[in-house]
Structure formats: structure tokens, C-alpha cells
Design goal:
2 copies of one chain form a homodimer. The first copy, chain A, is an alpha/beta fold. Chain A contains 20 helices and 19 strands. In chain A, helix 11 links the parallel strand 12 and strand 13.
């Protein structure tokens, strides 16, 4: 009764104001189109020098393509010199081949067309963390991930207007045998979310399973003509590609599906300790990888990727949120724009074991430079912790909140008449306040990004509420969200077909692991 | 014995590598000279529009100068229209007067000349938090600040190579009567640090005491001809200056000491809810204040200041680390550069009650935009918490670490031959690692910013070390630092003269408070 009354009254008063802002992001777009120009750290001379150095690496030092005679043959036929498995590219060859056929942008389709993503240009797409063997939450601590954890993160990503993509191997569900794990992960993305997803890359057959399952969801013809997956092809830096990654890249690219060619760099170990040296090596590796993809399947969408951090010179341990990787991200984004292809890097990348101040500093430092650099595909946007070993429930919620802020920041300063607010200044005048003025009232619903995790109450109120830190509030939040989760509709016929496919593949694959 | 042996062996092995990096910042400069260009969010048309709007505010709506007939007379004589206490400035008047005499840069001298600061241009100076009535540490919790706390923060700032300035009212030592408090604060800066400091602004007589004490330290003639203090003159936004602040500004500027003219803005309360509206109002207020200072004391150093954050539209509470204030900081920095004067804004500004993830996200978001905006004088760089109510010991140490990272980031990408590292790439080649290569060895001491608070160890090692979060590590760190503190030398004759001055002033002032 009182609830009903409360509801009826919700048009007015403080409750009304609150409810009118319960969902301030009803109009949040499926992805960000940035209005701010990217921040740049390299001038023209520096860019040309790094590009020249990359060509020297490609032409004089070479890139290894391991255990893949087909790749060697294709590259040789196109003009490269092959010495054993070492491929040397004449200066300019890779760039020319890439620029001839690689698209500057592409659409990654989601099964809900309202959530289709434009990858490249001024667009930024946030994607969950990827590849973590462990999960952590405040109640259960650190433990191996399960398929239930995997599905939980798919659901939390689905429910957030600030997470644009469902991701890929968010965490490794180790309770599912490795040879069939990809099937359950893919099904989870398809069933529990309607956002775009990434494909399996751990074996060419798993990439093919990804394509086959996508055909069930999107239709065979649609997948032939459209990109519905984006998948992560890592280079074995320095200057090496292996047959597993090349095999997956072949499956995806010949099916017109997108690949990210991404050197995985901890500078000081997999690249020089300097930023300019690291950038030249990254560019060389990406040029070689993208060149192969464009030769193999001209026109297949392909992202210039990097994952770059540094190591501790004391212990050799990876370090995150430090300044040098930010410089590399800014520089690599410039190199990708000059090449004319979409760019993947960055994210929220803490090394900290728990979502404490260290984790947040590291995350904010990497996320701010990522967004300011103009990264298009932001893998590891949320939840990724401990240098990628742990997907953390509370941290996932914190990061979503930060991603929300980037939606506002990237839109820059509104210079419309309403944005200029001269009427408000005229109305209020010296010494008064703007709280109740007409302009404030009119902009009430859209003014200021509203965090749903930050506590802005008085100290006294905060104490009365239990003196919780952000981690404790995030703990309550993800449980509440999962409790409220409702699956997006999926055509029962498609669901059945997916399950039949999975059952068939599981019977074929079971016991063929463990690899 | 074993300790002595350990010391003798410190040239080699892992201990040797560690000790050779114990002070990686031996060559840290007294302030930052940025090599990166500032990030800009407003194009030419937007800048011109905001400048035109500021002129409309100045000419049509006016700025109040309260309880200061002298100021009104000076402004009227210079061409403004005075209606009661409301001053209207003809379009262009303020800008013209400021640009005629306000210096683009100035040197703030420290009593240790090696720590002199260049304020303006491409330089960034970090200054501790300011004005907090409370302090907090992990052991003692939240409590009113004392003079001992004040001195502790002066000492911690003195010991950090990343903190360039000793600050002003870091916290309010409420155990000292308010009418003599400024004397003890000033003495603390002069005695326990040799870095530059800020003056008292809470009454014109206290500003005069600041100048008089500075003359004891630097010599009377030196102070006449040089700037040795920078002090904070807040506007009572919207569009108001009061006689207290104007009185302090007069004392400082006629003594050739620097003032920051700083609108204090919580957008939505003291300015419109939009960034463009807030920027126009800030510019109008600063133009009016700086114009007055330049008329009163032509050529006196003067900083374009802002403190801008937003409020919660639900509760009216101030919010920090949100995107809109970052846009205001970027835009205001552009306006200051066009005016041709130094700029103060930003810092590490959390609203959180404790140094948790919320605090770190908020700090990193404000600090990153501050540094990327090209702010010259960064008040509130460390320790400031709970929207300015609390100076936090652990947070102070965390922020120092973050300031250190900015020293590296702002230097951009090293494009020297060593930076390009082509020899390293040639030496290592495909599939190998860079850990032991000649280039890595040669750059060991300077490669990568090394945090002294982040834990980058393995999860197992971190657990073995007590599973500490960053706050616990910072707690150990500040206590260790204070234990190691050694005061910089101060000529005993100067010390005696300062103490005699303070004793005299205390006998004159005691009991004249409480205001």
C-alpha cells in the first residue's frame, strides 16, 4: 500500500528527482563516437623514424612464421625472402599490401542489431577482460574460474550500458574440459547476451566451431557477407608468429571475420626497455601479421593490436599503470591511424592483487591514456586484475562505472546555446546560487555523470551507512545485478540448433584434450 | 656484522641492482618542464565564443567587489562602471590591462636556490593539498589536525623529489589559536623545509606577517625584487570578490609577491551545470580579479586559477573525479594560455572518505587531466581527501608515487639513438628475450618508472608478505620516512630572528581571535 502510494508520488519531490535519474543512460549509444581529438605524443619526424625502423626490422632482421609452410609460400610468392622460417620483407611491401585491401573500419554485428558495433575511425568499443584463469570476489576469495563465473560476467556485461561487447574468454572455465570449453563459452555469449562476441583462437578447429555456431545464430548467408566475430591473434614477441595463431587467423579471415594482430609485449623482456624501440618492433610485427592476413584473404577486417606493459627491473615481474606503456599506447595509436586501420590496445590493466587503491590508480592510468589515445577496440576494459591472472567481480563493477565516465568525457564541451548557459548566469547574478534556477531545472536529468558506486555523502552519513569502502559497495552491487538479470530473448529453434551442434561436437571431441 | 658484510657486498647481485636503484631520481629536477603538448578540448570557434561570453558577463552582468571602496575607486578610474558594489567592465578592458603588465611566467624563489620554481610556460609545479581541517591515518583515524600533523606533512613533502613546493595551509592546526596560527604554519615551512611556500590570506595583516617573515629568511632587498611566495586568492563565485581576499591580494601584489586568482566552483551551485557556461563565468571572474591586481600593482605575478568540480544532482553533495570537471580544466587551461598567464587548477581531488579504490580512481582521473591540460601550478597534488576536509597520511604517500610517474610521462618518447634501440632489436632477434642484452644492461638504472608503493610480486609472495593493500604499505612508508627525516640547515641567526618576530606578534595578537 505504502509502496503503491510511493509509486504514485514518484513524479515529485526528492524521490521523484531520484527516480527520474534511476536510468540516466537510457539513451546510451551502443558504442562511443568520440568528439575529442586523440592525444598525440609523436611528431611527424618521430613517426617517420619509427616507421623507417620498422621497415629495417622487417627487411633486415625478419619475422619468423613457425610451423606453417603455407604461410611461408604465400609470403614468398608476394615478394618476401624466406630463409628457413625467417621471412624478410622488402621495405614498404607490407604497408602497400595492407593499404590495398584492409578496411579502415568495419561493422561487427551483434545478434541484437541495436548493439552492432562500428570498429575504427572515431569510435571506441569497450570489451571485458580476457583470458584470466582465476576469479576473485570479496566473499569467496581467489579461486579457479568456472563456467558459472564465466556466465556471471557475460550477464553483468550484458546489463551494463557502458560495456559494448560481450568479450571472449573472459575467464577460463576450468571445470569444463579444455577440448570442449570453447563450445560452452561461445554458447554462454550467444545465450546470455545479445551483444557482439569474440571467437576461440586456441586451435584452428575451435575457430571453425566459432564460425559454425555463429552461422546458426546469424544465418549462413549473413555470416558469409558480414563480420560477426572479432578474435585475438597474438604474436609471440619478439618477431614471431606460431602456427596455432596463424591457423586461427586463416579460418577467421577466409570467413570474412575480423582478427586483431596483437604483439604481446612486456617491454624489457619481449621488446627493448625504451618506448621508441618498443614501438618500432610492435609496428614491424603488426605489419608482418596484417600483411599475411591480407594476402591470405584480401579485404578481411583486421585490427592493429598491441598489449604493452613493462617489467620491474628488480624482479622481472610485470608492472602496470606506469607511464611508459601509456606513451607506447599513444604512439601505437598514431602509427595505426597512419596505416589507416582500426586499433586495439589498453584497457583497465592493474597488477594489484585486490581492488584497492593500487588497482584503481593502475586502472585509471591505463584507461585514461587508452581513451585519450583514441583506441578503437578496448580489450580488458573491466575486471582484469593481477596482470591478467584474475577476473575480479567487484573490480568489474568499479570499471563499468569508470567506463561510464568516459562516455561523457569523450563528448567534449557542449557549445550549444543551452551549453553556454548565458541565461542562467544572467538569471542568477553575483553572489547567488544556481541550485534552483530555470537552466539547472531544465538540465537536471542530463547534468553531470552520476556514479552508482562512489559514495559522495557526508562522513557522518557514510559512517552511519557502515563505513563501507568501494569494494564492499561493489560487492553488494554485482549480487543485486545478477539477482535482477533477465536473459535476452533467443529464438528457441536457434537455441536448440546450438545445443544440438554442441552435443555433436562434444561427442566428437571429448577425451581428445588435454591441450 | 652481517649488516656490515651486507653493505660491503652491495655492489653486486640482486642486492646491488636494488641498491643501485634505491634513489632512481637523484637527478629529478626541481619542477617539471613538459615535453608533451597540452591536450585541448576547445577549437578556435569555441574559445572565441567563451571569451565573448565572458566579456558579456563582465560588461552586462558585472562583478561585485564587496566592502572595498578603494578597489571600486581604482576600477572606476580605469574605465569600469560602478553601481553600488557592482562593477561593469567595458568589453576588452580587463584583457587589455592584464596583457599590458601581467608576466607570462615568474620565478618563485625557495630558500634553497636549487629548488627555485619557474611558474608558467611549459612548466608544472606540484604543491601539497591545502586547507583541510581534519587529518586521517590508518592508526589514528579521522581527527582534527594539529601543528604536529602540519609539520609532518611539511617534512614528507620536503623529502619527496616529486613534490616541488611546500604548500600553504596543508591542514589547519586547530591546537594553535586562530589569530596566531599563520605564524606557526609559516615558521614550519621555513624551518622544516627549504622548498618554496605559500602565504596566509585569511586577513591582510596575516599576509603582511607572511611578507615580513619572508624578509627575515630571504633578506629585505631580495624580497623587494623577487617573488618568494605564491598565495591563494579565492573568488566568492558567482561573480564576487570580498574585502578579505582583496586585502590579502593588495598586500602581496604591492610587495611583488604572486597571487592566484581562483574562482572556487562547484558547478550546479556556484556556476551553471554546463561546462561552457562554467568556463565563461570562470574566465569573467579571473579577468576581473587579475585586472584589479594589475591596476593596483602593475607587473605583480598573477596566476589564472580555477578550482572546479561538480555536485550530485540528487543530494547537492560535491562530487570529484567525474568527467565534467576534467573538461573544465582542459578548457580553462586553454583560456589561460590565450590570455598569456600562468594557470593553476586540478590536483589529486578525491571525494572518498578513505584511501580506497574510489579515492584512487578520483585522484588519477583529476591528476591525469591536470597534467595533460598543462596546468602550471598544481595545488592539492597530494593528501587532499573527502572533498578537502581531510589530509590523509597514507594517501599523501600514494599521491607522491603518482606524481613521480607524471615526471616520466611528461617527458614523452625519447627519440635518441639509445631510445630507438635498434641495436638491441638486432642483437636479440626473433623468439629470444631482452632481459640480458647489452642495451637493457646499459639502461638498467633509468628504464621504467619504479613505484615504491605498488606491489608487483606474485600472489603467493604478496600473501607471504601479509596480503597488505596499498594503504597498509603507505602506512609503513610514511612512518619510516618521518623516522628518517633530517631538517635542512637554517642559519641560526635567521631562526632566532624568526622566533623573535613570532614571539612579538603572538604577544600582540593573542586573544584577538576568534575570527
Amino acid at each position: 500500500m505504502s509502496e503503491a502510494r510511493g509509486r504514485r508520488r514518484s513524479g515529485g519531490g526528492r524521490a521523484g528527482r531520484q527516480s527520474s535519474r534511476v536510468n540516466p543512460v537510457a539513451s546510451t549509444p551502443a558504442y562511443i563516437t568520440r568528439k575529442l581529438k586523440p592525444f598525440e605524443v609523436l611528431d611527424e619526424a618521430a613517426l617517420e623514424q619509427i616507421e623507417a625502423n620498422a621497415e629495417t626490422i622487417l627487411s633486415e632482421m625478419g619475422i619468423e612464421f613457425r610451423d606453417d609452410p603455407e604461410a611461408l609460400e604465400i609470403l614468398q610468392k608476394a615478394g618476401a625472402t624466406v630463409e628457413g622460417e625467417l621471412v624478410k620483407f622488402p621495405r614498404g611491401m607490407c604497408r602497400e599490401i595492407i593499404q590495398k585491401s584492409a578496411p579502415a573500419e568495419y561493422t561487427q554485428h551483434a545478434r541484437n542489431p541495436a548493439k552492432n558495433l562500428q570498429i575504427g575511425g572515431n569510435n571506441t568499443v569497450f570489451v571485458p577482460g580476457y583470458g584470466c584463469p582465476f576469479v576473485r570476489d570479496l566473499d569467496g576469495g581467489r579461486r579457479y574460474a568456472t563456467i558459472e563465473d564465466f556466465q556471471n560476467f557475460v550477464k553483468l556485461a550484458y546489463m551494463s550500458p557502458y560495456m559494448h561487447h560481450s568479450g571472449g574468454t573472459i575467464c577460463e572455465p576450468v571445470d569444463v574440459p579444455v577440448e570442449v570449453r570453447h563450445l560452452d563459452m561461445l554458447y554462454s555469449h550467444m545465450k546470455y547476451s545479445d551483444k557482439a562476441f569474440m571467437g576461440s583462437v586456441t586451435a584452428p578447429e575451435r575457430a571453425q566451431d566459432t564460425v559454425d555456431m555463429a552461422k546458426i545464430v546469424f544465418g549462413e548467408d549473413f555470416v558469409k557477407n558480414n563480420t560477426v566475430t572479432t578474435s585475438l591473434i597474438n604474436a609471440n614477441s619478439p618477431m614471431t608468429f606460431d602456427d596455432t595463431m596463424l591457423g586461427a587467423a586463416k579460418v577467421y579471415s577466409r570467413n570474412n571475420q575480423a582478427c586483431i594482430i596483437a604483439p604481446f609485449i612486456l617491454a624489457g623482456a619481449m621488446s627493448p626497455v625504451t618506448s621508441a624501440g618498443t614501438l618500432a618492433q610492435i609496428l614491424a610485427e603488426v605489419l608482418a601479421g596484417m600483411c599475411f592476413v591480407q594476402l591470405y584473404a584480401p579485404g578481411a577486417p583486421c585490427i592493429f593490436g598491441t598489449f604493452a606493459s613493462s617489467i620491474s627491473m628488480q624482479s622481472g615481474a610485470p608492472t602496470f599503470g606506469t607511464p611508459e606503456p601509456s606513451l607506447v599506447t599513444y604512439g601505437a595509436a598514431q602509427l595505426a591511424r597512419r596505416l589507416g586501420v582500426p586499433f586495439r590496445s589498453g584497457g583497465s590493466l592493474p597488477g594489484s592483487k585486490i581492488p584497492d587503491a593500487q588497482a584503481a590508480y593502475e586502472s585509471a592510468n591505463t584507461l585514461n591514456s587508452t581513451v585519450m589515445a583514441g583506441v578503437n577496440f578496448v580489450l580488458h576494459s573491466a575486471g582484469w586484475m593481477e596482470g591478467g591472472l584474475v577476473m575480479d567481480y567487484e573490480k568489474f563493477m568499479m570499471d563499468l562505472d569508470q567506463l561510464g565516465m568516459q562516455h561523457t568525457l569523450t563528448q567534449g564541451v557542449d557549445m550549444s546555446e543551452n551549453g553556454q548557459a548565458m541565461d542562467a548566469i544572467r538569471e542568477v547574478g553575483p553572489g547567488n546560487h544556481y541550485l534552483g534556477c530555470a537552466h539547472t531545472q531544465a538540465n537536471f536529468q542530463t547534468a553531470f555523470y552520476m556514479s552508482d558506486l562512489a559514495d559522495n555523502n557526508s562522513f557522518e552519513q557514510w559512517e552511519e551507512d557502515g563505513s563501507m569502502d568501494m569494494r564492499q559497495r561493489a560487492n553488494l552491487q554485482w549480487k543485486k545485478k545478477l539477482g535482477e538479470y533477465q536473459a535476452p530473448e533467443l529464438d528457441p529453434a536457434i537455441d536448440e540448433a546450438l545445443q544440438a551442434f554442441i552435443a555433436k561436437r562434444k561427442s566428437e571431441l571429448s577425451g581428445t584434450g588435454d591441450f
